[in-house]
Amino acid sequence: MTLRSALASLLAATLLFWSPPTFALSGVVDARAEVDAALFASSATQAAAEKAADTTITALRAQIVALAAKVRAGEAKRSELIAVEESFMAQLAAKDRAYAEAIAAFRGAVTHITETAEGAAALQKFNDGDEVGAISIIGQLNDARDASLQKATDIEKAVGRRDQATLALEAHRRGKMGVRAVIGLYEQVVRLDPGLSSDWVELSRLYQPAGDLPAAQKAAETALATAHDDQERTRALDEIGAVLTAEGHLADARTAYQQSLNIRRGQAAASPANVDLQRAISVSLGDVGQALNLQGDLSGARGAYDESLAIARRLAAADPANAKLARDLVVRLHATGNVLTAKGDQAGALSVERESLALAQRLAAADPGDAQLQGDVAVGQEKVGYVLINLGNLPGARTAFTASLDIRRRLAAADPDSAQLQSDVADSLTSLGHVQWQQGDLAGARQSDEEALAIVRRLAAEDPSNADGQRDIAVTLSVIGELKEKQGDLPGAASAFQECLATVRRLSAADPTNANLQRDIAVAAENLGFVLSAQKDPGETKAFAESLDIYRRLAGASPTNARLQSDLAGALGISGAVAQDRGDLPAAAKAYQEELALKLRLAAADPSDTNLQYGVAGAFNSVGGLLAAQGDRAGALTNYQQSAGVLRKLTSADPTNAELRFYLAVDLDKIGDILVAQGDLAGAAKALGEEADLARALAAANPSNVRLRGQLSIALEGLGDVLTALKDYPGARKAYEETLVLGRAQLAVAPGEAKILVGIAELSLKACNVAMAQGDVAGAVADCQASLAITRKLAAVAPTDTTLQRIIGFALSRLALAPGSGVHWADVAAQYQSMKDHGMLTAEGEGNLKEAQRRASVETAK
User: Per-residue pLDDT for 214 more than 80?
Assistant: First the structure.
C-alpha cells in the first residue's frame, strides 16, 4: 500500500468509539502529540483494542482517557500522555500483526503530513473532530506538493530541451534552421522552466530577427523580472535596450543602458581591480554612446565613447598579451570612429579606424585560424573605406573594400553553411558597388549590387520568417534603384524602389509601433518620388507627401532627437524643390524657410557638428536657388555667399575634406554666374578662378573621380568665358585648352560618347574665337576645323540635331573669316539655308543667314 493510499483509507474512516484528546497550545502545534492522538483515535487502533479484549489493554485505554482529561486541565504533562499512548499501541501491535502493519502505514502518512506547519495544523483540526475541513486542507497541501513535484519534473525536462535549443541555435547560425523553428524550441524551454533569465534573453534575441519586437521586448522584460543577481540584471537591461533601439524608442533604450551602466559602476566601485567589471563598464558606455548617437546627440555620444575607449586602452595596456582585451580595443575604436565620422571629423575618424585596423590585423596574424579575428580585419577595411570616400580618396576606398570582400569570400567559402558569413559577403559587395558608382564604373557597381541582391534573396528564401533578412532585401533594392536611376534606367529604378517600399510596408504592418520601420517607409517613398519626378509621373507628389508626413510625425514624437529633426529638415528641402519644380514658388519658399530655420537651430545646438553646419549651407543654397528663379539676383547672391561662408569655415578647419571643398566649388560657380548676370565680370572671374583652383586640386588628388573632373571642366569653361568677355585672351585660351585636355581624357575612357564629343566641339569653337581675337589665325583655323570635323561626323548620324547644325554654322563662319581656310561665305550661307529649310533656324540664325548671304555676295563680286 502506498503512503498516499494508506492515508486516504485510514483518514476516511470515522472513529468508532470516541474523539481523541485534543489540546490548544497558544497556536503552536505539537506534531508528535497530534500524530499519537490520531494514531490512538484511529479506527484501526480502536478495532484492535476491541479485538484484543485484554484486561491490560482495557486498563491502559481507560488510563489514557483519564490522563487526557488531566492534560487538558493542566494537571498532567503531555509527554506522559504520549508515553502511555505509544505503550498502548506497541502492545496492540505485538498482539496483532495485521494491526502492526496498518498502524505503521498510518503513522507514516500522518507523520509525513506534519512535516509542514500547515499539515500539522490540519491534523490538529482532524483530531479536534473537523475531519472534513482537515481533509480539504490536506488535499490542498497535496495539490501544492504535486505542483512542486511537477515543477521539479518540468525543470528536469527543460534541461534536455535547452540542450536541444542550444544546438538548434547553432544550426540557425549556420543557415541550417529557420529562426521560427529555434524560437519554438526556446518557447518549450521557458514553458517548462520560466525561471531562468538567460533563456528569456536568448528568446528575445531570436524574436528580433523574426520581426516580432513586441514579443522580444516582453521576453527581455521577463529576463529582467527573473534575474537573480546583478550580472543577470545588467544582461537583461542590455537586451531591453537593444530591443528598444530596434523599435526606434531611443530615449527609453538609453534609460535601460544607463541603468545597466549604473549597476556595473556600483559593482566596480566595490571591486575596482576586477577586470571583467571594467570591461563591462566599457561595453555599457558604448551602448549608451550608441543610443545618444542615434538620437543625434553626437557630443554626448562622443563623451561616452571616449570614456569607453579610455577604459579599453588602459586594460589592454595593462595586459598586452591578452587578445580578448586587445579585441575590445578594436571594437571601441570603431565606435569612436563612427561618431567622429558623424560629426564630420573625417581626418580624426581615419586615424582611429586605421589604428583599429592595424590592431585587428596584428591579432589575426597571430591566430590565422580564428575566423572571428579575420572577420574583424574585414570590418576594419570596410570602416577605413567609408572614411576614405568621405575624404574623396576613391581609389583608396576601393582598395579597402576589395580587401574586405576578399576576406569575407574566403571565410564564407570555408563555412558555406553560415548565413551570417554569406550576409557579410553581400554587405561587402554593396560597399564595393558604392565606390564603383562614385568612380563612374556603373557596370561594375551594378554587377556588385546584383550579386549582393541575389545573396540576400537566397538567404531570405531559406528563412522567410527572418525580418532582418527581408529588410536586407529592401536595403539592397534601394541601392540598386539609385544605381539604375544614375544609369538613366528610370523604369528599372522605379521597379526596385517600389519593391523596396512594398517590403518595408509589409514589415511595418507586422510591427506598427516600430519607428525605425516607419522611417524606412519614408526613405523608400522619398526615393520612389525622385524617380517618378524624373519620369514626369504625377505620383511623385503623393510619394513625397507621404515621406514628409512620416518625418513630421516621427520628429514630433521625439522633439529632442536631432537625427529625426534633421530628417524632417531634409524632407522639407525636398518638398520645397518639388513645389519649385511645379511652379508653386510660395509653397517652395515656405518649405525652404522652415528647412533653414530648423537646420540653423540644430547647428546652433551643436556648433562642433560639421554635418549640421554643412546642412545649413545646403539650406542657404536652396533659398538662393529659389530667389534666383524668382529673378531676385541680389537675394540669391546673398544666400549663396552665406553658404560659401559656412563652407569656408568648415574647409579651413578640415582642409583635407574633399566633399566640403567640392561643394564650396559648386557655390563659387553659382556666385560667379550671378556676378556675370549683374555685370560684375571682375568679381565673377575671381570666384570662378577660386572654383577652378579648388576643383583642380581635388581632381589631381583623385584623378579617377569623374565628378571632380566634371566640376573642374565646368569651372574652367566658365572662367574662360568671363576672361574672354574681359578681353583677357591669354587667360581665356589657357582655361579652354585645359578644359579640352580634360574632355579628351574623358573621351579616352568612353570613346564615341556623343555628349563628350559635342562638348569638345563647342570648346574648340570657343578656343577658335579667342585665337582669332589674339591674331593667331593658324591656331584659330586648327581649333575650328577640329570642331567642324567632330560635329559633321555626329551630324551624319543625327542630321536633325539642331545643336550640331548650329555648331557647324558657327565653325564655318569663323573659318570663312580666316584667309586660306578653304571655307567661303557661300558655304556658310548654304549651311544656314539648309537649317532654315529643315525648320532648325532660330531668330539669331536668321540674322546669321542674312549676314552670310551678304558676305557671299561681296565675296563673289570680288
Answer: yes
Angle of helix 197-207 versus helix 131-173 axis, rounded to 10: 50
Nine cell digits for residue 276: 571583467
CB under 8 Å to 49, separation ≥6 — which residues? 57, 58, 61, 92
Looking up cell 529576463 gives: 223
What pLDDT, in 10s, does the model give residues 631-677?
A: 999 999 999 999 999 999 999 988 888 888 999 999 999 999 999 99
Nearest to 658 by CA among 705, 621, 623, 615: 705
Neighbours of 348 (CB within 10 A): 17
State pLDDT tens for residues 88-127: 889 888 887 777 877 887 788 778 777 878 778 877 777 7
Question: H or E element: which one contains 157?
Answer: helix 131-173
Given 3-state DSSP classes, what are the helix, strand and coil percentages for the chain, each rounded to the nearest 5?
Answer: 85, 0, 15
Cell numbers for 2: 502506498
Inter-residue contact 480 to 453 (CB < 8 Å): yes
CA distances from 267 to 276, 332, 422 (A): 11, 22, 40
Alpha-carbon span 794 to 798, nearest angstrom: 6
Q: Which long-range contacts (CB under 8 A, 24 or more apart) does 583-587 make?
A: 585/626, 585/629, 585/630
C-alpha cell at 855: 558676305
C-beta of residue 109 within 8 angstroms of C-beta of residue 7 = yes
Alpha-carbon distance values, 212 to 524, 541, 660 (Å): 22, 33, 42
User: Which region holds residue 245: left if phi is over 0, alpha if psi is between -120 and 50, else beta?
Assistant: alpha
What are the CA-CA distances from residue 295 to residues 253, 304, 410 (Å)?
A: 10, 14, 37
CA 737 to chain CA centroid, nearest Å:
48
Cα 633 from Cα 654, distance rounded (Å): 31
Question: How long is the chain?
Answer: 862
Cα 519 from Cα 566, distance rounded (Å): 12
d(CA 602, CA 559): 11
Q: How confident is the model at residue 144 (pLDDT cuts 50, 70, 90)?
A: low
Angle between helix 562-581 and 539-557 (nearest 10): 160
Q: Residue 265, class by beta-carbon neighbours within 10 Å (0-12 exposed, 13-18 middle, 19+ buried)?
A: middle
Take residue 214 and report the three cell numbers written for it: 513586441
- Region 691-698: mean pLDDT is 94
- List pLDDT tens digits, range 370-412: 889 999 999 999 999 999 998 889 999 999 999 999 999 999 9
3-state class of 148 per DSSP? helix
Q: How far apart are CA 818 and CA 806, in angstroms?
A: 19
Rounded CA-CA distance 407/173 in Å is: 19
DSSP H helical ranges for 174-196: 179-192
Cell 489493554 sits at which residue? 57
Instruction: Show the cell assigned to 539.
Output: 505620383
* DSSP letter (8 states) at residue 828: H
- All cell numbers assigned to 246: 530596434
Contact 113, 120 (CB under 8 A): yes
Residue 610 has pLDDT above 90, yes or no: no
In this prediction the pTM is 0.66
How many CB atoms are closer than 10 A to CB 764? 24
743-761 tens-digit pLDDT:
998 888 888 888 999 999 9
Dihedral sign from CA coordinates of 481, 487, 492, 498: positive
Q: What percent of the chain has pLDDT over 90?
A: 61
In the chain the first and final C-alpha atoms are separated, in Å, by 144
In angstroms, the CA 523 to CA 534 distance is 17
SS3 570: helix
Give tens-digit pLDDT for 41-55.
Answer: 777 788 888 877 678
d(CA 266, CA 201): 23
